Amino acid sequence: MTLKIEIKRKALHMTGLTVPAVYLLFGKEVTVLFVSLALTVFLILEPFRTVEELRERIKKKLGIPEEIANKIEKEIESIAREHEKRGIGAHIYFAAASLIIVLLFPREVAIGSIAVATLGDAVAAIVGKSFGNHRFKNGKSIEGSLSHFIVGLLILFPLVGFKIAIIGAFVGTLAEFYEVPPDDNFSSQLIIAITLYLLGVR
């Protein structure tokens, strides 16, 4: 992906910060409802994103002009990873993991893990694309990984303290670096949350 497309993708990805924001402002119950509704909408719409026949039917029923429909489809396809074009989208993995975390983990763990996975990933990708001169075999860069760690540390420090923040940020950076299956948008959040919980954050 080019830097321009990566920025578009990460700008969309950054909407995930609405989850910790809602938690901070309105608490756990509202956040569970918010994420549940988002996940439900994503699951309903997902077949229309991946199955061309369904998209064509909807376009005809809604009377969307061909030119506008093609432009929208092109934009969506341009920011999708190759495995997402015919498979599960990152937004579904993200929402599913967020819901699990908000339901099962304490407030600081939920807010911290989701915020780090969201903002850390976005910053790492953009910094890596722009300034990543020292790359590993998987295409990741030292610069991108370091920026992920710093972002994680800055987010976690006021929530869990410096020592735990260092470990949480480091684990989050490793999860992002290795893109743990089934999808890093799912696993990164959970790995950070589990780590913080095991370190005693309640």
UniProtKB/TrEMBL annotation:
Upper taxonomic lineage: Archaea, Methanobacteriati, Methanobacteriota, Thermococci, Thermococcales
GO molecular function per UniProt: ATP-dependent diacylglycerol kinase activity
Tree of life domain: Archaea
Xref: InterPro entries: Dgk1-like
The keyword Transmembrane helix is assigned to this record: yes
Protein name: Phosphatidate cytidylyltransferase
Keyword entries, A-Z: Membrane, Transmembrane, Transmembrane helix
Annotated TM spans: 20-45, 88-105, 111-128, 149-174, 186-201
Hydrolase listed as a keyword: no
